[in-house]
Structures are given as structure tokens and as C-alpha cells.
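Try it yourself: sequence plus S-adenosylmethionine, in.
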Amino acid sequence: MMTRIATRAALFSAVAVSACGAAPHDHEHGAGHGHHGHHAFKDPAEWAKRFDDPARDEWQKPDAVIGHLRLSSNSKVADVGAGTGYFVVRLAPQVPVGKVYAVDIEASMVEHTVERARGMGFSNVAGVVAPPTEAALPEPVDVVLLVNTYHHIEARPAYFGKLRGSLLPGGRVVLVDYKKDPDVPGAPMEMRLTPEEVIEEMSAAGYRLATRSEGALPRQYILIFESN
Ligand SMILES: C[S@@+](CC[C@H](N)C(=O)[O-])C[C@H]1O[C@@H](n2cnc3c(N)ncnc32)[C@H](O)[C@@H]1O
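Structure, out:
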């Protein structure tokens, strides 16, 4: 089966790429955090140098993250804010008879990730170019993963409230994001959220906390939610 960009999602590509963003800020985490800065994630080749730097594996510990997802061979997973596909290409072999949706508001990122997955021989990856307000998944999934992306999403209660409709029974939302600790490199401190803040927002959106891990990863916490 061909790796593809989901038809419904392609509908949204004009929305995603027509919105303009402010000039990116220059800081450790790089561009993409200015006002409306999520629109700055437009150059996959440039971002891949950072997101797919092999040195990232040391602190990102992708196997530990994926272990938290408790996937089966037929699981359906959405990586929202998939970027250059760091997690997508690691998730795809875990669900050989399932599906991985690479969701991003930037069409260039989605195209890059779909091509990357295809080049690695994965036929179970589909791209979704989503608007900022919803994940626009073409079908419900078992797991929605967001890595370093939760803090980019605006109007989060509405976004995650709507996302409940895209979860299969027993489905989970897994949030991996930077600890609000100035000694931890990552997003600007003013954009980071504490686990308590995230839990409060997700509760307002209709979720209950299932798992909280602040020790598995050196730079990020992992919060896993189920729909009420
Ligand atoms: C910091 S990058 C993280 C990329 C990837 N998750 C990783 O860990 O390598 C954030 C990504 O989220 C995307 N993004 C920002 N807002 C989004 C939204 N509302 N929906 C989907 N993706 C979004 C950006 O375009 C960017 O590719």
C-alpha cells in the first residue's frame, strides 16, 4: 500500500499554509515559538538538523516514550505536531498492521515525513495537514501522541475536547513536553507548562489523568490521559 497524505487532510493544506506567522525568535529551542510562531516550522531540511540530531536520542529516549504508549501490532496512532517525523518513523515498525498518522499544520513537514517513511519502506504511514484548531484525523485512533507540541496549541480546551471524538474506546492522549525548569534546555520558559497546569486544562477538556511520569526522561514529563 502506498504511503499517502490523507485525502480529507489535503483539503486543509490551503488553510495551514496560507496563515502567516511572525518572525521566529532565536533561542535554544529555535524558531517556532514567536507569537503565532507555530507557523515558522516551514523548512523541514533545516529543522531536521535539530529534531533528528542523533544526539537527541540520549535525552529523548524514544524507546522509553514508545514503551509508555503500550502499542499492539494493529494499533492506530496519531503523532500530532509530528514535525520531521522523528517519532513517526519509530512508531511505524511498532504497528505493522496498524496505522500512524503524521499530523502537522505545516504541509511541508507532513510531506517530508511521509516521504521519509516511504523511503524507509513503511506503508502504514499517512499524512494529515491539519488546521490549528483540530487534529482532523480521518478515523478514530488508539493513541494520540504530542511531543513538544502541546505548548504550541492555542485554545487547548476546545482542541482537546474535540479530540475526544477521535479516540477509540480505551484511547489515550500522551503528552510529552518540557519540564518547567530553567536548567532544562528546551522551549522558552514562558511557554512551558507545569504538569499541574496541563492536568487542569485536560480535566477541563474532559480527560482524567492515567499516568504521570517525571522521572523517565531527563528533560520532559510524560502525562497520559483517558477520556471521561
Ligand atoms: C517543536 S516541533 C515538535 C516536532 C516533533 N513532535 C518532535 O518531537 O520532533 C512542534 C511541531 O508542532 C507543529 N504544530 C504547531 N501547532 C500545531 C497544531 N495546532 N496542530 C498540529 N501541529 C502543530 C509545528 O508545525 C511543529 O512541526
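One thing you can check immediately is this: Residues 4-227 form a domain with the Rossmann fold fold (CATH 3.40.50.150).
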